Amino acid sequence: MKAIAVKGVSALLSTAEEALRPARYWLGFAPWRHKAAAPAPARKPKPEAEDPSALEPTLYRFILRHSLGAQIFLLVLTLISFPFLYYSLLLPKTITDGAIKGGKQFPLHILGFELDQISYLMVLCAAFLGLVFINGGFKYYINTYKGRLGERMLRRFRYQLYQRMLLFPLSYFHKNSSAQIIPMITVECEQLGGFIGDSFVTPLSNGGQLLTNIFFMFMQDWILGLAAVALYPVQGYLIPKLQFKVNQLARRRVRTIRQVADRVQESATGIADIQANDNARLQLSGFAHLLGTIYDIRFESYQRKFFVKFLNNFLGQLTPFFFFSIGGYLVLINKLSVGALAAVLLSQRELASPWNELLGFYQIFQTSKITYEQIVEQFQPAGMMDARLQLEEPGVVTPLTGELVVANLSLAEDGGSRILDGITFSVPLEAHVAVIGQGGSGKNELALVLARLTRPTSGRILIGGMDLAALPTAVTGRRIGYAGAAPYLFAGTLRDNLLLGLRHRPIRPAEYDPGSDKRRSSQIYEARRSGNIDFDLHADWLDYESAGVADKAGLSARITEVLARLDFDEVVYTLGLRWRLDPEAQSEAAARLLEARRTLARRLSEDGIANLVETYDADRFNLNASVAENLLFGTPIGPAFDFEALADNTYVLQVLTKVGLIDDLVEVGKQVAETMIELFADLPADHEFFEQFSFISATDLPEFVAILGRIGADGTRALSRADRTKLLSLPFKLIPARHRLDVLDQTMQDRLLEARKVFRADLPAEAQSQIEFFDAERYNAAASVQDNILFGKIAYGEADAPVRVPSAVAEVVDELSLRQTIIEVGLEYNVGTGGSRLSFAERQKAGIAREVLKRPDLLILNEATSALDGQGQSRVTKGLKDEFAGRGIIWVLHRANLAKDFDRVLVLSNGKLEEQGAPSELDGNGSLMSLLIAAE
Amino acid sequence: MSLKEEFELLRRVPIFAEIEPSKLKLLAFMSERIGFDPGKRLVQQGDSADAAYLIIDGHAEVVLETAAGPVVVATLGANETVGEMGILGDVPRNATVRAKDRLIVLRISKDPFMRMVREFPNMAVSIMRELAQRLDATNHQLSAALAEVKRLRDQAGIAA
What we know:
The complex is a heterodimer of chains A (936) and B (160).
Chain A: H1 2-26, H2 32-36, H3 59-100, E1 108-110, E2 113-115, H4 117-165, H5 170-175, H6 178-188, H7 190-198, H8 201-220, H9 222-229, H10 232-269, H11 271-276, H12 280-332, H13 338-378, H14 387-391, E3 403-412, E4 418-428, E5 432-437, H15 443-450, E6 458-463, E7 466-467, H16 473-479, E8 480-483, H17 494-498, E9 503-508, H18 514-529, E10 540-542, H19 544-547, H20 552-565, H21 569-578, H22 587-606, E11 613-615, H23 627-632, E12 634-636, H24 650-658, H25 662-680, H26 688-693, H27 701-710, H28 721-732, H29 736-739, H30 746-762, E13 771-773, H31 785-790, E14 792-794, H32 801-815, H33 819-827, H34 840-853, E15 858-862, H35 870-883, E16 888-892, E17 904-909, E18 912-917, H36 919-922, H37 928-934
Parallel strand pairs in A: 5-16, 5-17, 8-15, 15-16
Antiparallel strand pairs in A: 1-2, 3-4, 3-6, 6-7, 9-10, 11-14, 12-13, 17-18
Chain B: H1 3-12, H2 21-30, E1 32-36, E2 41-43, E3 51-57, E4 60-66, E5 69-76, E6 81-82, H3 84-89, E7 96-99, E8 103-109, H4 110-119, H5 121-159
Antiparallel strand pairs in B: 1-8, 2-7, 3-6, 3-8, 4-5, 4-7
Helix pairs in contact in B: 1-2, 4-5
């Protein structure tokens, strides 16, 4: 008790200090907290420190533990505000009775001043105004303070939840979907913030008011006082009982809503299979059923909740009923004076307001409590990693050496069946070990256990005598590499994905100018107030030392080396050709790419194949480019001049009108539409030819049929604006050399050239930044590297073009030593969510490259090359074995015959280690290994 | 050269003659018009078949790669098709085809081509007729060749 009191007082002091901080700041005092919060001090590992991610089991323990001081401060502040509130309620009476009605002897003498009636009135009114300001100020400050307190606590709670999620065992996500967790961290806990600010002040101040009123009532007449509170025990007994049911319903509702989230995610993930199997009705019925359940719960909950309100109101009115009936009777038989009854009735009414406030608070408290407990319950899965292992930062991470000893390792499923059963082996850490077995043999789980991604049920893994289970992630995650069959790539650049394993903590602090430095300090301060991590996201997190390089240039060279080892450099080069380079940031590279443009043009004409590329020429119509490109003669930046939406663009329409081309282009659109309808009308809507060949999608085709049907004797001129826009959108996609529709004759082409000139000349200043015009002497930032080198279009209809042009580009790139530059651009390629813009095999290679770059002492590969073809597989194997000479590899292979080149082979079957040894020893007659190879 | 002209060309080819015009136009639209410089290969013996070609302009040589070296077995000109056998039989190319002079062809991909065959029985019949004629011609050639072999062998026998 004393400890709590001391803690409370010290917390209160720090809170008061905190509360005054803005005031002191305004007054020009040094904000002393900022100093303490400057750069993050080195953290010493404290294994005995308590788990930072531990959650308090109940809402009030969470509130007390993290905001006791602030709550006391709020309470004190509220108490201080009461007298002012009281006086402001009293003052009007004094003004009317004392000053206006003149119930006093004037002049008055107050504090040595002599006041007549008018000045007295003015003084009182001034006091009234002053009190209004003071009360408003209190209210403003207290509400803001409550809001901030709630938000800090909410921030802390969300952070704890997310931190715990990062510690969840992998198996959790096999059984549960993330769709349940997302609403818990985002929406469900939102209401807690509001409640926390009120958690002490509301019950205590209203409770205090209630008690005071009851006390005054007893002072007046203890019998009537007793009568006034007589029903409270009944209410106090009944309402929680009823509320209990409401709480249970609320619990069920939350669980059902989580099922809804789950279902939505599942349906979204499985959308292809639902559509492919005509399963929508079943899905809809399942969903409707869930919604029905929620409806039922909600309806019942409303009934009960409002019944509680009803009951409370009824009981509240029962007391006046007794007062009127019994009190009235007493007055009539002259046992009670009318004045006393009136006084009691009045104070009884005073009771109602705090009582109802308390009841409302009680209901909100109950829902908040349920929310909190239901969330906390979900964030306690079995097998969580210890947060201290994840965040501990040892001063030096020493390389792992010695022997890898696996003793009696077992892994059991929930049901008890053993996936791994008593695995025992030991190998030198630097050995290259293959693990083979059939699917379900436990080989994949063994890899996960060895990488400490799954915790074994029993048994030990020692590396150089150290227990793997006790090592911090700082060691396992940096000294052991793990790549699975489906490595996850985060949305962002390929480079960032490759460097994931080199970003463990901020290494070099970011440079801030004085203004943003102050902002950063307050960010750190706030993060710490809420128990959040205060590392700087904008610092340089790249650990060059782990990668074995000195600086940025060294890292670039190293990345290229690793890409080459994994036979991945060609892919990244191709990505680079398709990606864009920022000529502002890399002016030198841009200048050299311009050089490549000139060299390519020269080479093509020297080889007599200049006709394979139709170069952009401001004065010529490019038959191999679309009409849109011909008109803009540039690359759009951003959505304004997006080729798909040109027909809607006001400026484009203005230009076309000016050169008198618009009607003719609509006419061309009509011809294109006619041809498309003739060609595609009979095809089923889902036919692949639509996607591959048609200008008009299957869904839009009927609309165009309708538009053509509306063309009357007046031609396309009489069509509505929307119809004309639709038709106009077609010719923009037309590439004359490719589509051969013969709808753009020479005159038309000349007029489009004229439109091109007008477009450029009239372009308003604010639109200049929306387009980058083709210019033979300028690098085009909006276009891909390849388009910049070509500066034109590869000609359609020349058999050689698709082969000879890229090979000529490649020759020029090599001649000018631009390959490295283009690979660098390829590393900036955005891989898309989950790496979706790379092929599966490319993702696997990126996943391995990421592990190689961090130079682990042991690389564990879990069928990490399963998507590669035979040739790719053997190149990667060779590259990795060369790279890891003297360092260990444990490779769970998807095909047993790849095991022949390894030092050691472990053969698993049904969770047991059946054979181990050199491949030459195992590959004998009748061995499990030979059977596995024979089965392939 | 435009879609309309290519369509007219296709119509003159016997195996396409019976297809309704809109479908044939679609086939022309989905096909690519490609130019080959002299000596360039359209088709390599042994490769898998992915397209048929209609010669629009110029000449193509059909070359058999034999143990004794390449042998030109035929020269094809405008309006003749080449490569449809590979598509129909789903077999590797049985000969190499190369441009004899500047050659312009219409390249008809396997998918659209097979779709037409499936949808238009008449087209299949035309192809069968064409194949039967070719087989007949080949049989004639073969029997002539066999007779020639026999004659040469007899001569050699007499000499021996």
